Amino acid sequence: xxxxxxxLSPFVRKVRVLLLESGLADQVEVVDVTTTPLExxxxxxxxxxxxxxxxxxxxxxxxxxxxxxxxxYLDQQAGGRFYPEARLWEVLTLEAIAExxxxxALAMTYEARFRPEDMRYAPWVEGQWAKAARxxxxxxxxxxxxxxxxxxxxxxxxxxxxxYLDFRHDVRGWRDGHPxxxxxxxxxxxxxxxxxxAPA
Length: 200
What we know:
mainly alpha, three-stranded mixed beta sheet, 8 helices, 6% strand
């Protein structure tokens, strides 16, 4: 299989961390491409008509995307440990929260990178950050008991979301007011799978 990828994407990183944690890394070739909202890489477009990454090119069927579809598929190949049935709705909900943080943070990044300075709209950027901030508050207030449990896909997704905030929006200081989440992330980010996939 081939993973159409970019080393800086938090959505790709989710998949790469799962590959390492599940023992499937040697079954997937990571193919890095350069693709943007303004110029889509041909390999990305061939695997996903939306041109978004990641996309997983399989040997026995059509390519699949987005990251949540890919991680469910890979987890099934690995035996289903990362989406445990007993906690499935909690895992999926927290994973969705993490994805929302990534989406808001990526939108902020795109606003700065791809819009001319005179077309950037600061209130819109702040609105994106407000989404991420509310999500962080929700995790701190309601989800720490879940994060204390066995590693699942929601842990991986949240770890990648927080890593992206550090990478692109460190000035926002997401740790302020979130001491429990900060302590959890210190341990999560030290995992070998997280260290090997950290953006640089």
